[in-house]
Amino acid sequence: LFRIIIKFFENFDNLEKKYRRLLLILLDTIILICSALFINFIFSGSSLENFKILGFKSIMSLIFIGIFIYIFSGQYNSITKYIRPTLIYKIAFRNFIFILTYLIIRKIFGLNISYLRIYFLYWFISTSIVIISRFTIKEILIFYDNFKTKKIIKVAIYGAGSAGAQLASSL
């Protein structure tokens, strides 16, 4: 199993940019669907088969609007391996914009906007899962790079005193 995972990330790391983006779009689509199913499960109290809270059309609309905003706001422009912590704010803001866009479109077409807490919870869950998935992918790719190279750099620190001990512990 470990070799299969390593092989997958070796292939992922060597993919062209457009295929890597396609995989991330697929991952985000799955995340948005799972977030909607989770909301339905929490608020309906029964099974995942009933789309009582967010209907099938609502889920499809959320996915379409979300992926559209993700693509055109630059969600997939950064290299997965070099994600910075500021990405958290950007993802949260993009998700806020896409939920707000969805609610505005519903209002324009005269559709009912049920409880806002549902959409706030959807925003929170989808944002959390997207952030966790991005940082998980980043850490796995960094681990894979370290696993792949296995180069140990030897360093000699001479005459640096306590600063040298601090430097040695950080290496």
Would you mind describing this structure in some detail?
This protein is mostly helical and 171 residues long. 73% of the residues lie in helices and 0% in strands. It is elongated and about 75 Å long. The model has no long low-confidence stretch (mean pLDDT 79). The chain has 6 helices and no strands. It has helices at residues 2-14, 17-44, 56-72, 87-108, 116-149, 161-170.
Provide the fold topology:
Layout: H1 2-14, H2 17-44, H3 56-72, H4 87-108, H5 116-149, H6 161-170
Helix pairs in contact: 2-3, 2-5, 3-4, 4-5
Overall geometric form: elongated
In sequence order, what are the helices and strands, one letter per element? Answer: HHHHHH
Helical percent range? over 70%
* First-last Cα distance: 31 Å
Q: What value does the Rg take, in angstroms?
A: 21 Å
Largest sheet at a glance? none
β-strand percent reads under 5%
